[in-house]
Write a structure and sequence with these properties.
The complex is a heterodimer of chains A (165) and B (378). Chain A has four helices and nine strands, in the order αβββαββαββαββ. In chain A, the strands form four sheets. Chain A has a three-stranded antiparallel sheet. In chain A, strands 1-2 form a two-stranded antiparallel ribbon. A two-stranded antiparallel ribbon of chain A has the order 3-6. Chain A is elongated, with a radius of gyration of 23 Å. Helix content of chain B is 45%, strand content 13%. Chain B has one domain: Cytochrome-c3 Hydrogenase, chain B, CATH 1.10.645.10. In chain B, helix 3 runs antiparallel to helix 4, helix 4 runs antiparallel to helix 5 and helix 4 runs antiparallel to helix 15. The chains are: A alpha+beta (165), B alpha+beta (378). The interface between A and B is large, with 44 and 48 residues.
Chain lengths: 165, 378
């Protein structure tokens, strides 16, 4: 194959892409769709449930303050601290619950694997930016709130190429 | 008072013709490492690669964490290939702790590992393209990589640094309907990477820049102990997925791609061919995978080794053979973890390859080695 033919073929291959659709995701107008409701773990079988490893969610009525999530995080990021909570739960005698510093968290989800009481899950919320370092520290009360995450865009494949439809 | 500098810092006698040039460690063309090149005009007379700029002490850190909490930090050396970099550690830990792995988990691991290999190679290809001045080859792989990252995100919940493999299987089962989505996106991905032939690999400008530059002969490739695509581009048919099959690779039909030229072009073409082979393996694994069953053996909270014991496991990563040597002394933490990484083995060929080349050929030769500085430094 001659040099001229090769260059023309290369250009031709690029020109074909004028007719194909745009693949780019227009974040933040469009947001990705995820499977499930976030990464969860079932301690009875020892297997997790697939989902995005985003911001955590804490169920106050399940948390016993056993500190296993905090111990699991010790060698990883040391992002979890146990703090006193004002409310009184029947199962939580010491009234301590995890507080998570997202400036340190690496989103590995090992704390979720460690929780034997179905109290700590992860959610699809990944937009955690803050203007201050303190804003990244989520207290047990903040972790209790279920986030609203807009999900509208998924990869679609057609004859004219892949798009985020 | 006499004062002598240590050998590395000693002042060198400057020849009038020879100029010493530091490429890196913060130069975008070298990654996080320094290449000290001595040039005579435009020709390189000597080259001394200087890794170690991003040393993090991963091996020492592993001695203070237990077998499970070692997982997130041991995949940091290559975040784009995080499943493969963790694979030998997990295989070794399973043998030390005496854990059986369910059949379905082995297939899930193979799929994750092959997807990660493609993700890594696409990232590398994007860098290789931009350093040859081919910006289309930067944009296309960076975009098409998204197809596979999307699959990994569905499968593991994270786009990079998945922390998915654990001793005893994988963290979570595949999401519902994953097989169909995976098949569709992998088929489209394969169609896309075949288009790279016309725009990049058959492009006369690329061929002119990379043919017969940095030739590594078959004998030298073996003598230096290079692995992976560098070794296969020099005509040695060596792939651990065939030679020492781990998990379920012996049940799958794996082919290697070998080229005999040993130049930069062959070294850049082999990973591209490997991606098509990975697509084949993913399709086979999806077909042969048991449709149901457990994916993880339940572990005790703090697993312990069975006394003084050691194990060495290696896998074929996106760059070559990656080994992990673990010594256990019966505690919850490993006594010693040693990573034997392909990037460091391939780098040793660089001074030989660059000698006599023009300085302008340095990026094409250096990046064709499939080198990842962070992995080499650990």
């Amino acid at each position: 194959m001659g040099t001229a033919t090769g260059i023309i073929r290369a250009l031709n291959s690029g020109i074909k892409h004028i007719a194909t659709k745009r693949f780019t995701l227009r974040y933040p107008e469009e947001k990705l769709k995820f499977v499930g409701d976030g990464y969860q773990f079932d301690p009875s079988t020892g297997v997790g449930i697939a989902g995005l490893k985003g911001r955590h969610m804490l169920f106050h009525d399940h948390c016993t303050g056993c500190q296993l999530c905090s111990i699991a995080c010790e060698g990883v990021a040391e992002a979890i601290a146990m703090v006193k909570v004002p409310e009184e739960q029947k199962q939580n005698k010491k009234s301590i619950m995890p507080q998570i510093d997202y400036g340190k968290c690496v989103f590995c989800g090992l704390c979720v694997d460690a929780c034997p009481f179905y109290a700590l899950y992860m959610t699809n919320d990944y937009e955690l930016s803050s203007f201050s370092k303190e804003g990244l520290i989520y207290t047990p009360a903040q972790l209790q709130v279920k986030p609203y995450v807009a999900q509208d865009s998924e990869i679609q494949i057609s004859d004219r190429g892949a798009t985020h439809g | 008072m006499t004062f002598t500098l240590p050998p590395g810092l000693a002042l060198q006698k400057v020849d009038e013709r020879i100029m010493t040039l530091n490429v890196g460690p913060q130069h975008p063309g070298s990654g996080h490492m320094r290449i000290i090149v001595q040039i005579d005009g435009d020709y390189i007379v000597a080259c001394d690669p200087d890794p170690g700029y991003v040393h993090r002490g991963e091996e020492k850190m592993a001695e203070y964490r237990n077998y499970i909490t070692n997982i997130p930090h041991l995949e940091r050396p290559v975040i784009h290939d995080s499943c493969n970099v963790l694979y030998p550690y997990v295989l070794g830990a399973e043998e030390l702790l005496g854990i059986e792995v369910p059949e379905r988990a082995k297939y899930v691991r193979v799929i994750a590992s092959e997807l990660n290999r493609c993700i890594y190679i696409m990232y590398w290809l994007a860098i290789y393209g931009i350093f040859l001045g081919h910006s289309t080859m930067f944009m296309w792989p960076a975009g098409d990589r998204e197809l596979l990252i999307d699959l990994m995100e569905k499968m593991t919940g994270a786009r990079v640094t998945h922390a998915h493999f654990v001793p005893g299987g994988v963290r979570n089962d595949l999401p519902p309907n994953f097989e169909d989505v995976c098949l569709r996106q992998v088929n489209y991905f394969e169609k896309r990477i075949k288009e790279y032939a016309a725009v990049f690999y058959d492009n006369p400008i690329l061929i002119a820049r990379t043919r017969d530059t940095g030739v590594l002969s078959r004998q030298d490739a073996i003598r230096y102990g290079t692995t992976g695509s560098v070794l296969r581009a020099s005509g040695v048919d060596y792939d651990l997925r065939i030679k020492e099959p781990y998990d379920v690779y012996d049940e799958l039909d794996v082919h290697t791609n070998v080229m005999n030229e040993g130049d930069s072009y062959a070294r850049s073409r082999i990973p591209w061919l490997d991606m098509m082979e990975s697509c084949n393996i993913i399709r086979q694994a999806l077909q042969k995978m048991p449709k149901s069953g457990s994916v993880r053996t339940k572990l005790k909270p703090n697993p312990k080794g069975k006394g003084l014991d050691s194990v060495y496991k290696r896998v074929e990563s996106g760059r070559g053979s990656l080994g992990c040597y673990i010594v256990s002394d019966g505690k919850t933490e490993p006594y010693r973890v040693k990573l034997s990484v392909p990037s460091f083995r391939n780098l040793i060929a660089l001074p030989n390859l660059l000698k006599g080349e023009k300085l302008g050929n340095m990026p094409s030769v250096y990046w064709s080695l499939n080198y990842w500085p962070v992995e080499a430094d650990r």
